[in-house]
Amino acid sequence: MNIKKLGRLVWPYLIWLFVLVLIPLLMMLVLSFFETRGLNFDNAVFTMNHWFQDLRDPSVLKALENSFTFAGTTVIIVFLIGYPMAYILAHSSFANKMIILMLTIIPMWSNSLLRNNALRNLLSDASLVNDLLSRIGLSFIWNVKGTETGIIVALVLTYLPFMILPIYTVLEKMDKNLIEASMDLGASPVRTFFKVTFPLSIKGVVTGVIMVFLPSFSGFAVPYILGDGKFVLVGTIIEKSYNYNINFVSTLSILLVVVIFFMIFFVSKVDKEGESFL
Amino acid sequence: MSQMVVTLQRRVVLFFRKPHVQKTTKVLQGILKQVFFYTVMFLLYLPILIIAIQSVNDSINVNRFYGLTLRWYTDMFRDPELITVILNTLINALLSTLLATVFGTAFAIGIHSLNRKLRQKVIFLNQIPILNADVVTGISLMLIFKAVMELFPNIFIPLEMILSFENNISFQLSLTVLLSHLFFGLPYVVLSVLPKLSELDENLYDAALDLGSKPFDAIMKVIIPAIRAGIFTGMLMAFTMSIDDFVITFFTSGGNYDNVSTFVYGKVGKIMTPSVYAYNTFLTISVVVVLVGLYFHSAHKQMKLKQLYAQHNQKI
């Protein structure tokens, strides 16, 4: 098997990942324990304050709470919509399944900031849609711009495809005979779903949950665009202070990395070959 | 009491087992499914629809519709600021995708040839850039570039390319942004190439070597053609991620470089030229056209194959 000798092609990638993943992490870890001026360590003071005082600051606690509520709510709604969508797609007898799948991907091609900007326009009291509808005697006013609802609507619409795709992928690859076997053995469709289909699709669900939770937990663009800048999330703090307080930003990033690491570890337990990503 | 519940339950079950009831519930289920599916699809497309309406609205006021116009589409090529950010986005995406495709394929071949345990470890590492929060990736890359600044003081300064002096058209190429986009594009290429490699018959590579070709030629002529569908998917993913990226560009650009996303972010709540909406609509429509074209192309190919196969069978 000569192909086994090609393993040396991996080395450059390992070095690349080492330089761009591991070294920055170590830098962040060190920075989070010091008071420095940017990356300049002259007159640097060792301090635990970032971990023990700054993190307990009421504004930071509020941001963490906001991040958890927004991301948690988004994940639940996206899952409740995304799973049935993926299920319908995977079990449809459409000959044009590919086209429908493409249709779920196309929104991702459109700039996400512009899409959220358009939603901001739609969800205010004087919107383009309302103006158009008023001409035919209808009206649509749902003024939730600058509220939690607006942010959650935008997060749900932005990240929905990220839940549909991984779940669709595992459902599609699943052996359909298992469902028939379960039905033949007398299980009701509902029982079959909970005992066969759902457990087999858990890989995709876990990947989807992470792909939705992380960006909505740490992002700052959507809350800024739809929330009129009224809501502070973890990402917002990082965005506002990365230029002058790299030490506390590093602390927050390390905190995020710990959360992410647990999640990646969890995924790698259920999905060893990274199948559910594509 | 429990007796009553059981009989009630049995009655309900029996009721749903009646043929005509079963038929109606099935039809109802079907309708509900359709309604749900198309509603969600509509909601997914609603923002894109609004962007499209804004792109043909004859005013820079985004809250009222003044009439149809196509002038934002022609203005798109006249506004020097916009053309710079569009070119920045596209050129950066093309270059980073090209690099990610070449290197990602090579790395995937390498990963595939490792033994099972090592392979799973490297795949685990490969997932980090995909699953990591963009904010953390952005800050990480910014830190490493800032650290390298000691050696290369100009690393954050983008390369300025002037296309036309008269019309003031230019674009920029930022090394830091290019490297960052390469960083998050690579894992997608690796992930989409790997499954195709495991479908590959490894004897083909051995046969090529036995017949006297060098390893590089064998890879190019035997392995690459067999996995090209995976390479293409990975390329598409990397490109998609790159043109839509906001957070990572935001943190790694050093402030002197804008792509479409960071440009839009700077204009939230302010007046923005509707040509941005024109650009976005144009891009969406081109993607749809290309995808539909590809679909019909492959459908046509399959039809032809089927016909050939039928003819072949007839001859036998």
CATH class of the domain at 80-272 in chain B: Mainly Alpha
Give the termini separation of chain A. 28 Å
Number of strands of chain A: 2
Computed structural class of chain A: mainly alpha
Can you name the CATH architecture of chain A?
A: Orthogonal Bundle
Mean pLDDT of chain B: 87
> Rg of chain A from C-alpha positions?
23 Å
Output the number of helix runs of chain A: 13
Question: Per DSSP, what share of the residues of chain A sits in E-state strands of 2 or more residues?
Answer: under 5%
How many distinct beta strands of chain B? 2
Per CATH, the class of chain A reads Mainly Alpha
- In the sheet with the most strands of chain B, the strands line up as 1-2
Q: Which stretches of chain B of 5+ consecutive residues score pLDDT under 50?
A: none
- Sum up the overall morphology of chain B in one term: extended
Number of domains of chain A: 1
Summing up helix and strand content along with how strands pair, one would put the structural category of chain B as mainly alpha
Structure description:
The complex is a heterodimer of chains A (278) and B (316). By secondary structure, chain A is mainly α. Chain A is 70% helix and 4% strand. Chain A has 13 helices and 2 strands, in the order αββαααααααααααα. Chain A has helices at 11-31, 49-52, 58-91, 97-109, 112-122, 128-135, 148-173, 176-184, 189-200, 202-218, 221-226, 234-241, 246-270, and strands spanning 34-37, 40-46. Chain A has a two-stranded antiparallel ribbon with strand order 1-2. The longest helix of chain A is centred in the first third of the chain and has 34 residues, at 58-91. Chain B has helices at residues 2-17, 19-55, 71-75, 80-112, 116-131, 134-148, 175-199, 202-210, 215-226, 228-244, 247-252, 260-266, 275-315, and strands spanning 159-164, 169-173. In chain B, strands 1-2 form a two-stranded antiparallel sheet. Chain B is extended and about 80 Å long. Chain B starts with a helix and ends with a helix. The model of chain B has no long low-confidence stretch (mean pLDDT 87).
